[in-house]
Every structure is written in C-alpha cells, then in structure tokens.
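Annual report, structural modelling task.

Input specification for the adenosine-5'-triphosphate complex:
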Amino acid sequence: MSRAAGAVRALVLGAPASGKGTVSSRIVRKYQLQHVASGDRLRHHIMTGTKFGTQVKAYLDEGKLVPDDLVIKFMLDELARVEGSWLLDGFPRTAVQAEQLWKLQPVDFAINLNVPFDVIVDRVKGRWVHLPSGRVYNIDFNAPKVPGKDDETGEDLVQRPDDKPEAVMKRLQIYKEMTEPLIDFYNKLGILEEFKGSTTDEIWPQVVQFLDVKLKQ
Ligand code: ATP
Ligand code: MG
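The model returned the following structure:
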C-alpha cells in the first residue's frame, strides 16, 4: 500500500454517538478526503446480505465488537482500495487494531471528540440514520427537513438496533474498556488532537480551525 504524494491519512476517535459520523461527513466534504467508516461498511454488508455480512450481523445487533481478526483484514482491504486522502471513522477500536494499522498505514493525525457521557446517552435516544449514506440526524437538535426522511434522497430514516438502551450501555462499556486507551496510544505518538464539546456544532469550528492550518487551505 503506497501513499500518493500529498495524500492525508487521518482518523476520528470518540465514544459511540459522540458525533464521529457527523463530524467525519463534514470533514470529508470540506477537505475532500474519502470517508472510510467501519460501521457503515459493515452495515452495508449486512444490508446486502453478503457472506461477510451474515458473519458479523449478531455482533452489531448486540452492540459488541466484531472480532479483531475479522475487522482488521476487512478494513485494511477497504483502505487498500482507497486512492488519495482518507479519514477513518470507527476503526481502530482496540489496541491490536491500532497497532496493526500503525504498522501498515501510519496516520498523520488522530482527532478525538471529547463529549460528556450523559450527553451521549441522551443523544442516542433521538438518533435516526439514512442507512445507504450513513447520514445521521437527531430529532432533538439536527432534525431532517421532513420527519423520518433523508434530506438529500427523501428515503426513509431508521433507528439502529444497537441504539436500543441495553445495546447502548454495552457499547459505552466496551468503549471505556477497549477504545478509550487508544487516546493515549496516539497521544504518545504525538499526533492526537482533542476537541471538546456537547454538540457537533460546538466542536466543528474547533476542528475547522485545526484542519485549515493542518491542511493549508
Ligand atoms: P456512532 O456511529 O454513533 O459513532 P458507534 O461508533 O458505536 O456509534 P459504528 O462505528 O457505526 O457505531 O459501529 C457499529 C458497530 O459496528 C459496532 O458496535 C461494532 O459492532 C461494529 N464495529 C465497527 N467498527 C468496528 C471495529 N473497528 N472493531 C470492531 N467492531 C466494529
Ligand atoms: Mg459511526
């Protein structure tokens, strides 16, 4: 896997529903990176009924992590097919994933979204997604123009099975245990940038300020 001249490699870290998907969509639109979201890509396989999709479905439905060996191979294959700059969202999520990624595709910087846990739990309750694109809405603060419909395509929005309260608690617990330590992993490498806030709108201007300098626009 070689790197094209000037290509940027970045990733977004954050708890479930911390706004990774929303912030990532805004970043890739504004700075022309490719969005590589593990959750979206896994859900796509489930939705289209591939063999891989049937292998991973139960993990997603229950809010558990897909085993490292499966998800690492899958995501590194996906990345190998992306040309130019990319932004990873949702991968890596464990120390083993981060180490494997660093070995094969060292990233330039890692963005951490620091959102209070109580805010996250509340937020998941109002979340609706457009599955084909991964666009995320929230009926409390980022409602679609037409209730239940995607702004761009007019297609139906759905609530994810893993946004049920039991699954959300499970995901937060797994995040604390497995993924939060990655903040330290990237901090020690000197490439961590942290952004704090309760909403994406609070966080977004800070991200823009950082990326305008970092990506020299
Ligand atoms: P949000 O979409 O709000 O950021 P999230 O981060 O929990 O929430 P996704 O990133 O969409 O959700 O991931 C959904 C599910 O997909 C996870 O709960 C897990 O089952 C699986 N998954 C995604 N990425 C990984 C990964 N890197 N390692 C293991 N499992 C993963
Ligand atoms: Mg996501």
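Residues 20-21, 37, 39, 89-90 surround magnesium ion (ligand 2) (CB under 6 Å).
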